[in-house]
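Feature request disguised as a bug: please show the residue count (897) next to polyribonucleotide nucleotidyltransferase in the output. Example input:
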Amino acid sequence: MLANPRFHGKPPLQSSFLHSLRNEGFAFSFCCPGKFPLSSSIPLSLVRTSKTLRIKALNQTNTAEATNDSSEGSQYISKPYSVKIPVGDRHIFVETGHIGRQASGSVSVTDGETIVYASCCLADDPSEPTDFYPLSVHYQERFSAAGRTSGGFFKREGRAKDHEVLICRLIDRPLRPTMMKGFYHETQVLSWVLSYDGLHSPDSLAITASGIAVALSEVPHSKTIAGVRIGLVGDKYIVNPTTKEMEESELDLVLAGTDTAILMIEGFCNFLPEEKVLKAVEIGQEAVRVICNEVEALVKKCGKPKMVEAIKLPPPELYRHVEEIAGGELVKALQLKNKIPRRKALSALEEKVITILTEKGFVSKDETSGGAEIIPELFEDEDEDEALLLDGEVDEGDVHIKPVSRKPIPKFFSEVDVKLVFKDVTSKFLRRRIVEGGKRSDGRTPTGIRVINSECGLLPRAHGSTLFTRGETQALAVVTLGDKQMAQRIDNLVDVDEVKRFYLQYSFPPSCVGEVGRMGAPSRREIGHGMLAERALEPILPSEDDFPYTIRVESNITESNGSSSMASVCGGCLALQDAGVPVKGSIAGIAMGMVLDTQEFGGDGQPLILSDITGSEDASGDMDFKVAGNETGITAFQMDIKVGGVTLSIMEQALLQARDGRKQILAEMSKCTPPPSRKLSEHAPLILVMRVKPEKINMIIGSGGKKVKSIIEETGVESIDTQSNGVVKITARDLTSLEKTKAIILNLTMVPKIGDIFRNCEIKSIVAFGAFVEIAPGREGLCHISELSSDFLAKVEDVYKVGDRVDVKLIEINDKGQLRLSVRALLPEASSEKSVKGQPNTPMKEAGSSPISPPKGIFRRAASTTKVEPLKDDSKSTSVNDKEGNRMVNGEAKIGS
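Example output, currently without the count:
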């Protein structure tokens, strides 16, 4: 250790030499003693490289072998390379070779002061072949990017939050169609937000960064992808709008694709027509094209060779063999209308094909149809010498040939190859049936909608419920109403305590497809489908001022055969109406499919768009395009494809066909039996919204919240929520406790005026110079001894005691807000006396003293109620519903409002 100069705070002896080599772009080797001493020069032929710096540590025990093979075990470190790419009205900065140099591909993308880093790595050994590409995507927003830490107990990032899962899906869905079939090395894409300025959103940057990382890596793929966000402010479409611009945007569309086609879109809007959505897609596709072209130039300079040789596909002849074995039975199985019988028939047929091709071996029909093939067989004839032969025709060592029949040799294939091919052949037969026959598995035409049934009020104790059934897809939607405490809190990247008053949660148990499986945390698919349905329904919800409830919708999928997320939209809309939520209209959702290359199956070559697709049409088709909205506009959409991309003309055809489908579905939803109740359930809580002066809020809360807690205990309400702007929300289970709480708060926050009369007020305490009377809970005033009676009183106790009740009139409010009351002003003698004298009331003062101030702490707050007459204040109450669903305004029922 003493021989190492680093432990003495000095640089190593060779540091200047190595530094000079780095500057010259050379590679170097640490050599063991006796090979290349440090004092001698290192042959440049062993160390020079081009554009890279190769660093190799040689094992002292095997120096000769390591020196002879300088490439084995080496690590390449690329030089940093950066490029600016125009996106919208600004540029993004892309850099590679600076961070994450040991990854197969890594890149950082900067927009403003938002930086997203993405890396792509792959396993050294391939995994078992499967029909699902082994790709995993992880996106994480580091709280340090915004200069803060997690709000939880553990001050580090943990399980992915819902919005991070949604962005993972945005990255995964466009990447997957570009991956090459037959590549089984597990691939992992990581994307981190390293810096966030609060202005430039990181999600679209993460799509672009991940696409570039894959393009730079060794993973074979078809084309580079990129992503952008499109907003619509007024009539102006904005590419990658800022967060401030998005606050005014009517559209939030995230688009990903290649330089020639669209791979994925997702977003929501406020009933925009199809034409405006298509215009946004067109602008987004042009922005993606520019990014992809710039990235292709970057990949040519810095990208790594693709591992094309690692692609392992099934033998081509296997497709012909599977069709020959299962063709006829496959056609019959695909004609079964019901999902479960069809699935069992296909499963049995698959087992039969696997047994023939993997265990028994397959002999092609054309090999045996013409009889056995006659081939010569070599053998030695022992009697050959007895034959009469001419001289020179045969030699003594010749072997004679005898024609024999050859038996066909069975061909054996691996089980995984058979499964992969069987799935492809099944998809091919299904597509051919749709295109050639014009009929789908359940007998519908391409534009046909499955049979729809819906039933509301299924669950008597729930606030709202609907069972929506479309074909073999069924969703049980349940609505729960509550106060602010039921709202969903979100710990996001910026230091803002975001609260959602409406959220939809989607559940997809294995029983809905007749299977068994593990039950646990919601999957990425469940989170994504729930958010899509939530965004679809959000535009029809009333404002918080009109309906102050927190709304939770549960969509429990009880049967599934395609388009369960859109069934959640339809069922959720009806459940909201059944719960009495005053929605602005009805929303329906539909999933569109596609067969792209119809010429292969006897069609005219034009893409065939399918309405309301089933599960098999989703799996075997080329597109899954979900669209939600009403007859005139779209509220949410999501498109996934399994081919190299779709064009704008295909999207336009799909959107227009989806609009016709939504009209049919909405018409069927209107036939719901029984229909939605459209009134508040008797089991739902009552919420009263009051508005008081902001400076009066502290009087309701009290010291440390004691006052508001005492009100809740006394009245039995569930909660009292106060806001700094003067809004007070009272949540109760019955109208009696609600009205009692309202009266207490009104008395606490009222602003009394001179001349107001208060009846039946309690005397709370007695002092030498008068009595303190409580005119409202927590509000007391001084009634001087001279104002307690029209006659002279030597002592207050001669007439009154604590607990007595009197009628008083407010005669003065001093500069400190203290109240002066009078009993005498309401007596007949005092009234006649004042009418004779014509003198107004004046504050009672002792000689040489200032206006009377009660002793410290005399203003006590109580929770008891008093009768107030008249009730004059500056507070307002709005938005309360009684059990019959009627709106309550200022305590009076307004029927039908």
